[in-house]
Amino acid sequence: MGVRVTGVGSYLPPHTVDNDTLSTIVETSHEWIVTRTGIERRHISTGELSVDMSEYAARQAIEDAGVDPAEIDLVIVATVSPDNLFPSIACQLLNRLGIGEVMAFDLSAACTGVLYAINVVRSMIESGTHKKALIVGNEALSRITDWSDRGTCVLFGDGAGALVLERDDENAVLACYSAARSDTVDALYCRSYPMENPWCEDSDERPMFTRMNGKEVFKFASFAMVDGVERAAEMAGRPLSDIDWVVPHQANIRIIKNAAKKLAIDDDKFFVNIQHTANTGAASIPVALAEMKEKGLLKPGDELVLVAFGAGFTWGAVWLTWR
């Protein structure tokens, strides 16, 4: 019994914000942003909720897979920016998509969320308990971005990407590597609601915005990207030379190029769309896959490694054969 990806989909809000526009609200410039990140513009929600973007991407993936939504028996949404703490986006999607009473939950592993979800889905399908699963990576990061902080506001965008995975006689997901370690230096975090109850002497009023120590994140990312690809290759029993495409989390072009150099893999094998999407968190990899398929870049038999890192710290990689 195996697992393969049968459908992909994505949604990016139509409203875009370029670097020149950002320079009117925060001290920055197009050149400063591009040279440090590779980002030229990003898609920003002007009202689309996380569940709305998730629905649009999910519908595309379901149509691409050619499955009846009623056949889907597992839904996982990877996100750190849901509309509500509860109910989950996954539960809300069931009614919207016409999916029945199935297991559905949100997963929080930051930008690595979709790769964690693939690992979970593969295990559940291989166990025999499920047959067809929908994974959505969704982020409305603009709601947790401090637009006065040029060190973070230039990095993020909104969007959603989705995958359908199905049981198959021939296994296409050859390896799933997932890992985490504690971020002991608060390199990347976003606080939740303040603690307020009758027994608190002083409430915690720290703002609910993303905060980042760029140097520490870069240091970790440089390790995680290389480790993820190497571990996935080892688990799949395949040499790095077999890779046709590396689909990395789109966080920073310098991180991607650094990984390519350390792995001795040609830059051309790394798919990059960060210039027009920015960092869309958990949506990053499925959005990239949907764009690759739309452009005709993915061929049957292509060997792909999906690799990501995120707050936590989390990281991981998936080796799959495209069919």
Number of helices: 10
Give me the strand/helix succession. EEHHEHEHEHEHEEEEHEHHHEE
Under the CATH scheme, the architecture of the largest domain is: 3-Layer(aba) Sandwich
* Biggest sheet architecture: 5 strands, mixed
Structurally, the number of domains stands at: 2
- Structural class assignment: alpha/beta
Helix content: 25-40%
Walk me through what this model shows.
This protein has 323 residues and is of the alpha/beta class. It has two domains: 2-171, Thiolase/Chalcone synthase (Peroxisomal Thiolase, Chain A, domain 1, 3-Layer(aba) Sandwich); 174-189 and 206-321, Thiolase/Chalcone synthase (Peroxisomal Thiolase, Chain A, domain 1), CATH 3.40.47. It has ten helices and 13 strands. The protein has a five-stranded mixed beta sheet, with helices on both faces. A four-stranded mixed beta sheet has the order 8-13-12-11, with helices on both faces. Helix 4 (89-97) links the parallel strand 4 and strand 5 (103-107).
Which SSEs are present, and which pair or pack?
Elements: E1 2-11, E2 16-18, H1 19-22, H2 30-37, E3 41-43, H3 50-65, E4 74-78, H4 89-97, E5 103-107, H5 113-126, E6 132-140, H6 150-153, E7 158-168, E8 173-180, E9 188-190, E10 210-212, H7 214-236, E11 245-248, H8 253-263, H9 274-277, H10 284-294, E12 303-310, E13 314-321
In short:
The chain is α/β, with parallel strands linked by helices and 323 residues long.
